[in-house]
Design goal:
- The termini are far apart.
- The protein is elongated and about 75 Å long.
- It has a domain at about 25-63.
- The protein is mostly helical and about 60 residues long.
- Helices cover about 85% and strands about 0% of the residues.
- The longest helix has about 35 residues, at about 25-60.
- It is built from two helices and no strands.
Length: about 60
């Protein structure tokens, strides 16, 4: 049976080995992904804002 200290050391060694296998995105990949998220967020916010405005205007006409 291993001691707890050796389990922790083994965990960190395996973690470092796995992180070396990771293919990290390039700067351009990250920037293009951020741009897509920002543009999508702005478009969705605009659509939701327009729908909210239309629903409030409709309710004001009815009541």
């Amino acid at each position: 049976m291993k001691k707890n200290g050796s389990k922790v050391i083994n965990f960190f060694k395996e973690s470092v080995a796995e992180l070396k296998k990771v293919v990290w995105p390039t700067k351009n990949d990250v920037l293009s992904s951020v741009a897509v998220v920002l543009i999508s967020t702005i478009i969705i916010a605009a659509v939701l804002g327009l729908l909210d405005f239309l629903f409030v205007s409709g309710m004001n006409l009815i009541f």
